[in-house]
């Protein structure tokens, strides 16, 4: 005869599952998936969010026009919308499944959207530019991730990064710039007094 389950055992199992989901980042992933499905991220299309997208797009078209672009944490492809297909030879956007569902209709021979986690995603080719547009906060170890992604840049490839201004983000910038020297930097502030720092960073010479 099977033994009745102990409620305390179920609670322990539930706590353990929550712990491991948190440790693996799965709780955040599930939260973002749910929020995107409900439309909670629609505010990213507001006019006051346009500036930092436009700066990163400008960096790419000035430095690598006609090249290939990997957009990590692309959301529904808002950065891609700042380009025409004449601006790049290939665009690949990577994010969780819910935002990719909103972007997939824009796929063409030159534009592709892929479901993936930026902490584990492995590109299958080299790119002229890799972008982290307000997504770098979600890397477990930003510098190590940049070092890994740098192996998927062409020899003269660049990183393009945008982060909103916050004291704790200074540490992320310092870590990244210890290995990837900035080519240029712009700080932009919108009408809501929200500011972003946008930078183009070089792949270090071997």
Q: Care to give the gist of this entry?
A:
This protein has 6 helices and 7 strands, in the order αααββαββαβαββ. It is of the alpha/beta class and 206 residues long. A 7-stranded mixed β-sheet has the order 3-2-1-4-5-7-6.
Q: Give the class from helix and strand content and strand pairing.
A: alpha/beta
At the fourth CATH level, what is the homologous superfamily of the largest domain?
Vaccinia Virus protein VP39
Mean pLDDT: 86
Taken together, the total number of domains comes to: 2
Element-by-element helix/strand order? HHHEEHEEHEHEE
Q: Using only CA atoms, what is the Rg? A: 19 Å
Report the total helices. 6
The helicity comes to 25-40%
Name of the top-level CATH class of the largest domain: Alpha Beta
The side-by-side strand order for the widest beta sheet comes to 3-2-1-4-5-7-6
Largest sheet: 7 strands, mixed
Low-confidence stretches: 12-26
Number of strands: 7
Q: What best-fitting shape do the alpha-carbon axes yield?
A: globular
